[in-house]
Amino acid sequence: FFSVVMAKSILDLAPTELLVDGDEEWIQEFLDTLQSPDWTVSSEDPDGFKICYMKNAKSDVLVVKGAVPINVPMAVAYHFITDEENFEHYMKTVDPMCKFAKYVQKTDVKHTVKTAEFNLTKPLWPRDFVWKELNTVVPSGGSLSIGKSVEHKDCPPAKSSWLGGGAVRGEIAGSGYYFTSTGENQCTVEYLVQVDPKGGVPTSAVNLMCTDQAKNVKRLKEYLEAKHPSS
C-alpha cells in the first residue's frame, strides 16, 4: 500500500509555522502601516471601493491603499492570488499592464521569489521587478501576501542602452494584500503599494501611477464575483 501525503495549503498552516528570522517584524510593519491613523481618503465609490494615501518619511513616493468588499469567501479570494499555477493569470487579471510574470524560486509554501514585467505609457520603457514574497495567515484570522524587492542571481537587471532593448528595474519598497473574512461568502481585501519605477520618472507621475495601482483590488473584485456568482 502507498500513502499519499497531500501538501498543506497556506490556510492550513499555523500563523508562525515555517516563518523565518525577520518575518514577524515584516508582518507587523505591514499591519502597522495598514492600520495607521494617518491615511487620507482620496476617493470612495458606492460599491465600497476606497483609495487612500499616506506620506512616508523615508521617501517622497506615497504609500497608497486600495480597499474593497468582495462577495466571495476569503479562502476563494486568497487562493486565487497565491496559487502557483495561477500566478501569471492573476497578475494579468489585476494589472492589465503586466506583460509576463513567473516564479523565480520557491523555498516553501510561504516563501517565494517572483518576477514580472509591466508596460508603461510610451515613450517610457517597460519596468520589471523582482521581489521576495511571504504568504501566511495571522493570529486574528486574516491572511496576507506581502512583498518587497530583492536581488536574485537568476534575474539580473537588463543591460539597456539608448537604443532600447531592456526593461528598467524598478523597486518595490513594500506591497501586499490583506484579506479579512466578513461573512460566510464575503471578505474585505486591502492592498498597499509603494513602488518606485526608477528611470527618472518624476515623483508626481510615480504617485499618480501608484494611485492607479490601488485599482488592482477593484479588478480583483470584478473578476472573482463574475467567476463565482453564486458565492
Describe the model.
Helices cover 23% and strands 38% of the residues. It is built from 5 helices and 10 strands; from the N terminus they run H-E-E-E-H-H-E-E-E-E-E-E-E-H-H. It has helices at residues 23-34, 74-82, 87-94, 203-213, 216-227, and strands at 40-44, 50-56, 59-70, 98-108, 111-118, 127-137, 143-149, 168-169, 171-183, 186-196. Strand 1 (40-44) and strand 2 (50-56) form a beta hairpin.
Give me some keywords for this one.
5 helices; alpha+beta; ten-stranded mixed beta sheet; 231 residues; globular
Question: In a nutshell, what does this entry contain?
Answer:
23% of the residues lie in helices and 38% in strands. Mean pLDDT is 89; it is low at 1-7.
Regions with little confidence, pLDDT below 50 for 5+ residues: 1-7
Distance between the termini: 39 Å
Number of helices: 5
Strand portion? 35-45%
- Residues in helices, as a percent range: 10-25%
The overall strand count is 10
The overall average pLDDT, rounded, is 89
Describe the largest sheet. Answer: 10 strands, mixed
General shape: globular
Indicate the radius of gyration in whole angstroms: 18 Å
Structural class: alpha+beta
One letter per element, helices H and strands E, the order comes to HEEEHHEEEEEEEHH
Topology:
Layout: H1 23-34, E1 40-44, E2 50-56, E3 59-70, H2 74-82, H3 87-94, E4 98-108, E5 111-118, E6 127-137, E7 143-149, E8 168-169, E9 171-183, E10 186-196, H4 203-213, H5 216-227
Parallel strand pairs: 6-8
Antiparallel strand pairs: 1-2, 2-3, 3-10, 4-5, 5-6, 6-7, 7-9, 9-10
